[in-house]
Amino acid sequence: MMTGNTLTRELGWRLLRKLREIRQFEERIIPVYPTDVMVTPVHLHIGQEAVPVGVCDHLRPHDLVFIGHRTHGVALAKGMSMGSLMAELYGRTTGCAQGFGGSMHVCDPANGLPGSSALVGGSIALGVGAALAARLGKRDQLVVSCFGDGAADAGVFWESLNFAALKSVPVLFLCEDNGLSNVMRKEDHLHADPGVVAGHFMQVWRADGTDVLSVREAAGEAFAHIRATGRPALLWCATKRWMKHQGVEADDLACNPVDREKDCPIRKLEQALLSAGLATQAEIEQLGGEIESEIDAAIMFAEQSPFPDPGMLATEV
Ligand SMILES: Cc1ncc(C[n+]2csc(CCOP(=O)(O)OP(=O)(O)O)c2C)c(N)n1
Ligand SMILES: [Mg+2]
Q1: How far, in Å, CA of 37 to CA of 32, rounded?
Q2: What's this model's pTM, rounded to 2 decimal places?
């Protein structure tokens, strides 16, 4: 869905900046990662950027998002600074988790990121608990539980759906369905479409997870429903992973080069902006250059920051 009639310059430009921040940030990880200066495994969001950007565009800093192991896209979309995230990848004290966490354990409470979980499905119940707490505390706060299709075969997913529906917990379950759980295809680990089954518990929205406007529109409807009814909702976004599950190599099994060209969320939005006369190619290139400079600064910040003192090892545990 690329409805040009709802696309304004302000909206399109805001979304494009975020999409490109995530893509360009991760593209800079690719050459650096094999040199081992990043002391963490990474799971890249490249190709899937439309999902976090479309959802987080609705959120305010105090709205909460619980993330799994694929963190970078959501963290940047939710407002974490590039320097804080980059320094964490470099294992430095200025990182968002003081260099102790790495890519899978990012947090930024001031921007509504209480923490992420490397346990598949670990984020789901945390979001349910936080949404219940927000309801009991009468706080105007949206809460999102992010997870992948691989987590939808875990018991905690079904238990969380059941509890949230039974107790009217106003949480958004957000599935980034890239069709793969590590190297296992969805049809080999899921017996039925969880979105269909979840429809017995709550209202389900589906979006094209390679199209930021589709995700943004569906997320807007789901949040409106959550606010109006106090009930949970599920947003299922079908998207494409471009890279290997972990690390920085492209994965032709996950998404071949032809699909990458066709399904690129950035390309789709740029084409929509260009054809609606809302941007020029020169402006887009300038934006790319500005973001590149911001990433340069983030890398310099990370490189110049100290490692944690060994005496800190036993703290925060
Ligand atoms: C409880 C648990 N089981 C297994 C793993 C190993 N593991 C890490 S990521 C992953 C695949 C997860 O797939 P999905 O939830 O679809 O997320 P994606 O990587 O596709 O974003 C697995 C099996 C783990 N981290 N935690
Ligand atoms: Mg997956």
Answers
A1: 7
A2: 0.97
